[in-house]
Structure prediction request, 306 residues.
Amino acid sequence: MKKRAAIIAAAAAVIIIAAAVIVYMGIGSQVRECQLYFLNQSGTSLIVEDRHVSCHDESDLPEAVLNQLIKGPESNRNMRVINRRAKVKSVTGDGAGNYTADFSADFYMDDSTKTIFSVYAVVKTLCSINGINSVKVTVDGQDFTSADGSIIDSLTSEDINLSIDTDTSETHDVLLYFFDPASNKLAPETRTIRITDQQPPEQYIINELIKGPEDNAHDPVLSSSTTLISVTISENIGFVNFAHNFIDKNTGSPEAEERAIFAIVNSMTELEGISKVQFLIEGKKAEKFGTISIEHPIGRNTDIIA
Prediction:
């Protein structure tokens, strides 16, 4: 009797082991190399990590990738971009490459700027998968809303320009405008910048303005914590898309607001093919920047130049 029980137990163990092997071979049997986007060390832009992601089949890959995004970066030089408590509730497509990724309420971060980067990280990550053209992020089935209450709709990867460092020998001279206290006006400052193929040249203009002047006689026109999302050009208009902290960090006095707006406009319109600048806040038009109307494209102002 004992011998029979031992045989049955051994047979059961073999079955369990075989089942485990089958399950193991079935789960994660497909491995795909994907691009995941996380925050850089300074928290000012996204940076890509190549990651091998396991999934049951191609239809499960988007959700598997997002779970890896929530898990966080592998490099200690990068920072997580989604709250670790967030859950992927669903990832659905319409058959034409347009997807919706729905998360739990924990998706929202304490810092509204970082939450915007969370959305962009999801879009850039999913759009790196073959067959996904656009992504809409929702939270508990509801539209994602930014700090100012505006809805972030479907985005493509091309909608989001990122500042990613790459080696290149191509340089350009650009003319930037900063505040000159001696004249109480904007003064030009020539700067040689290195251009990569990771973002349009126009975006470097704004990034350099955020960095501030190199001439000790000049003062900054933008807060160093200003977050630029993207810059695009259409029909001679430069569309400059900022995070909401562009307003929070750079308004307060009419004089400073005027300097900030026209430092951007005058610097941008130094470039060929740009005659006006349309300001966007997290992808949407805003009516006011402090005391200044920014609802419509703004042209160059030479009266404010020293």
In short: Confidence is low (pLDDT under 50) at residues 17-28, 164-169. The first helix runs from residue 2 to 26.
